[in-house]
Amino acid sequence: MRKSSLSTLVLTCSLLLSGQSWARDYQFTDAHLHYLDFFQETEGMAKLFSAMDQAKVQQAMLSGIPVAKKWDEDEPKQPRYYAGDDGDVYWYSATDFILAEAIQQLPPKQQQRLHPFLSGFNPSDKNAAQHIRNLLDTHPKFWQGIGEVFLRHDDVTALTLGRTPRANNEAMYKVYRVAEEYDLPVLLHSNITSKREPEPIYLTEMEQVLKDHPRVRFIWAHAGTSLEIHRRQQQLEFLPETLSKLLANYPNLTLDLSWSLVDPYLIDQSTGLPNEQWVQLVEQYPERFVLGSDLVGKFGSLEKTLASFTPFLDALSEETAQKVATDNFLNLLPQWVSQAKKH
């Protein structure tokens, strides 16, 4: 057994003997949840709230999906996912209007549990900033963030017509200026590398953004990874050290641990135990990580998805686990959100 695995085993056994892991009752804030899927369909608010209650999710970030999957004329069967066939995906601005309408029909107490992020814009279009501004003005004190913005996103990018969006292109710089003006956090999906390269070839794009916009609070979806990268490369060996340097240098960066981070990073698949290197990283920066389910339009697996984080949370100190599971995301929201809750 490797030294790191042995250390983690000792930590886990200690928690079990003390009863600490059993005593913890996590109340989650889901920091990454999509109301709609890639066909702009959803199970609806009733099922969403039922799943949230079952999973002990008190509050959730909620967004649409910025693209829609085309059912191509030459395909005899409708695809079930964006990668189901070679049909295109295209930018879909109506996703924000569908989401806003669904939330505004809810009772006030349910509305207060949701934190809507707008996402329906083309991030390579320099008109996107004005589109966002129009939505913010149309729905004042409603939108609480921007994202998930699809930038470098392997197969999604490959299926999307037009220029590949980058985190540091001119169109997105206009978006960041709007985010700063309205005090909005920005959730970016920007892969740190491609499916085949074992080095962070796109890191400079994110790093430039973090450096150039120090007053914008950035959430990096999946810490720059994706399932497609892992299917080709298993683990990115450089990832923990690279992320540690970014967190040290850029206080405006928060890392989202959703989707592709549990396996193979947070939990060592060879032992089933929390990865000590990641435990140490989160403990070093306890206010810079958030958890999310990253479900898209269907919510039945919400409890199981969030429960997959429990062994990792149990390996953290109780204070850090509370911050990661619940508090950190809420602290990224605009100040007016917390002020509104007080009234």
Automatic annotation (TrEMBL):
The keyword Signal applies. GO terms for molecular function: hydrolase activity. Keywords: Signal. Transmembrane segments: none annotated. SUPFAM superfamilies: Metallo-dependent hydrolases. The keyword Transmembrane does not apply. It comes from the Bacteria. Residues 169-328 form the Amidohydrolase-related domain. Residues 1-23 form the signal peptide. This is 5-oxo-L-prolinase.
